[in-house]
UniProtKB/TrEMBL annotation:
Name the UniProt record assigns to this protein: Alkaline phosphatase D
EC number in record: 3.1.3.1
Keywords, alphabetical: Hydrolase
Species annotation: Lignipirellula cremea
EC class of the enzyme, as a word: hydrolase
InterPro entries: Metallo-depent_PP-like, PhoD-like_MPP, PhoD-like_sf
Amino acid sequence: MQVSRRHFKLTALAGLLAGWWQPWFGSSSKALAAALRQAEGAAAGPLVGAVTPDTAAIWMYTPADAKIEVRCAPADDPANSLRAAIEPIPTDDLELPGQAWQAALLGLVPNTVYTYQVILDGQTAPEHAGSFRTAPLQGAPVNFRLGLTSCMKVEKPQDSWPLFLQQEPDLHLTLGDTVYADTTDPRVQWRHHLRYRQSPAFARVIRSVPTFALWDDHDFGPDNSDGTAKGKEHSLSGWKRVWRNPGAGAPDLPGAFYRYAWGDVEFFVVDGRYYRSPGKARDDASKTMLGDAQFAWLVAGLKESQAKFKVVASGSTLHHSMHDGWRVYTRARHQFFDAIKTHRIDGVVYLSGSLHNSLAWEHHESDRVGYPLVEVISSGIANSKRLGFATLDFDTTHSDPAMHVRIVNGSGKLRQEQTWRLSQLSHG
Ligand SMILES: [Fe+2]
């Protein structure tokens, strides 16, 4: 065969690219595929999930059926130990070699540090022990630190998780792309979650910081997926098995959304995937981000909430994502902003992820809201150049409560910090 000069050049270029690409991407994806296959054969967890003033939920996976116990005691009174009620989490359809467990710790004291130990077949191990602080009483003035993350890829550097732990957050909210499974197949999603939880740096975080989670596209379905995703109900049942969130959806309204309080700060974690119109749909009055029923749930909750700060959290950014955020859902965004103004709801802030960058800013359409609408974006703790995350310190013990935001990058450097007072985030 005669080879033209142009063909030769293209072939040589393709060969060069393949040579560069294969060892870097090919081998890491092969290694990940192998690790995913093996994930069900190793323990994962414990994970501390939802914590309330008097309860805590713990999740664990054992690679074979096991005799499991959880002992827990106040950190300053270790003799006063209590045992958790433990039950298996139904996973029959996944045909796992092992078993997932949920433990409920009940009768705890508010705003108190507890240590716990998971005991498997009579054996203790340091990696199966952890600690957490219970939530303060709902409505009580508080001073606490929220750690905010999103976007973790297990095959990327995990160096920011130790930096995150050094910030000593009281609780952790992770706003999506908690895994990059890119499917609605629950077995594949499950393997990803196990594998991610077997990452030592992440394991240390989830066993000692109460972790509340929301999905975004990559843990809900394919990239940029929406409410038309086939099999989304399987994603939802898998999601409920793998996290111990305070809830998922409302009666007759499936979804991953829920609300919870930390003293007199309240979080409304809204599901921007299950009901979302396709991003490419015309940006007209029929285009929805949350769906009408979930949006009504959100507004009703914001109206009735007595919390000083009302934190609305979801995966998608309000403005910075060009094709996959509220920016291309104009009616939905304006409905949200207008509801805050119409009902004179004070102290609303918005948290998001997805961007693979982190920052805090005031939305340029804040006139619609009636006060500066602060958005804190925390994204790419293990999937970006900067490996960043955010912390939010809420202090409502003063006459003018404050929210202090810090953006930390992967070298531990503080990139941004700013304080907003409740008096600034009010209709006056
Ligand atoms: Fe992401």
